[in-house]
Amino acid sequence: MDRPNFAAWTAQRSSGYGGNMTVVDKVPPDMLHLIDSYWYQFPPLNPLWHGILGFVFGVLGFISVVGNGMVIYIFSSTKALRTPSNLLVLNLAVSDFMMMSTLCPMVVINSYYETWILGPLWCDLHAMFGSLFGCGSIWTMVFIALDRYNVIVKGLSAKPLTMKTAFLRIILIWLIALIWTVAPVVGWNRYVPEGNMTACGTDYLNKDWISRSYILVYAIFVYFLPLFMIIYAYWFIVKAVATHEKSMREQAKKMNVASLRSSEASQTSAECKLAKIALMTISLWFMAWTPYLVTNFAGIFGSQKLSPLVTIWCSLFAKANAVYNPIVYGISHPKYRQALQKKFPSLVCGSEPEADTVSQASGVTNVTNDDKQTIA
User: Is residue 228 part of a domain?
Assistant: First the structure.
């Protein structure tokens, strides 16, 4: 296998020979049966793009492995954080850790050689790992949102989450993810190289309705339904906190006091803080997964606008979600920040987190009658 050579690529592109080359030319013979004829029309990518993509994947992989590894270590080793709800946060960190630790090395290696050199088996495994851990992370985020909804919106009438229920939900998450991961292996769609030939995913260029149906149903159950459930949960969470804050202000007015909180003057209102967290969660979700969804839909409904470079960047955005999650779900947790300060004091920025006023069950806030709440 020839090493990447930018000078050679430039010379080829400036000559007639370079104009006859395609992005498929470097693909090993044992992979050609997986390549859709659509990709034969595209010239090879500039080697600099392969270098940039390999570097970005490597950096994101390192950040994700370190960030999620730290979340796993702290949540596992800190007794105060071993609660049923935090098992979901821990499961999210494990899923993101596994996704980036399995996918990134393969992408970096293939980016160096400018094509998929690991063979059909590893192509299947690469795509399966992406589907399994990606779906696992998505549905874990859903159950985290529903748990916060249960605690904050339902309040005292909510049935508390137990360790047994948390484990059952985690098992359900992985069963859901496993079903969608195995389906292409048994014939409902298939796993193939992406457009630039350095990563693998589902076949969204096959116009067979069996393959199309997988993309459509997968989109419903792994994108639209989870997104709707997260938006639904956070909408009512923000609404419940805003209502509670309003009642507290009205009660303070009746008692002819400025506030029922001693620190309200120096803190942002609870509903504003929670609204920011909700907006961040939904926005990062949308930014991460929507480009890849658009790529898949463009493929099954008409692939005229897809290019090799577009497909791999959309895949990269989806993988980058594994970098956001430890920040949103781990570092935003006050008790996590306290444990982080004890174990890794040099990594903590800003003021020391407040005392133990955050609900273990929600990870963000818990609205109670005595108003002992803090927004992470």
Answer: yes
Say whether 36 sits in a helix, a strand or coil.
coil
- Domain count for the chain: 1
Q: What letter represents residue 222's amino acid?
A: V
As a whole number of angstroms, the distance between CA 69 and CA 226 comes to 25
- Compute the CA torsion angle 27, 33, 38, 40 (nearest 10 deg): 40
Helix (H, G, I), strand (E, B) or coil at 15: coil
**Pair 271, 242: CB distance under 8 Å:** yes
Residue 38 resides in a domain: no
Tell me the one-letter amino acid at 247: S
Which residues lie closer than 8 Å to 199 by C-beta, 6 or more apart?
Answer: 103, 106, 107, 110, 116, 126, 193, 312, 315
Alpha-carbon 7 to chain mean position: 37
**Per-residue pLDDT for the chain (376 aa), expressed as one digit of tens each?**
444 454 444 444 444 444 578 889 999 999 999 999 899 989 998 899 999 999 999 999 999 999 899 889 988 888 888 889 889 989 999 999 999 999 999 999 999 999 999 999 999 999 999 999 999 999 998 998 898 888 888 877 778 889 999 999 999 999 999 999 999 999 999 999 988 899 999 999 988 888 899 999 999 999 999 999 988 988 888 888 777 777 777 777 777 665 555 444 434 455 456 556 767 777 888 888 898 898 999 888 876 678 888 888 888 888 888 888 777 766 677 778 788 888 777 665 554 544 443 333 333 334 443 333 333 3
Of residues 159, 160, 110, 104, the one with CA closest to residue 133: 104
Domain CATH number, residue 92: 1.20.1070.10
CA angle 274–141–108, rounded 5-degree value: 115
Q: CA-to-CA distance for 127 and 190, rounded, in angstroms?
A: 10
pTM attached to this predicted model: 0.82
Query: Is 153 in contact with 122 (CB distance < 8 Å)?
Result: no
Give domain status of residue 12, yes or no. no
Residue 353, token pair as written in the block: 């987190």
Alpha-carbon span 73 to 272, nearest angstrom: 31
User: Which amino acid is located at 10 in the chain?
Assistant: T
Closest by alpha carbon to 373, among 281, 236, 274, 279? Answer: 274
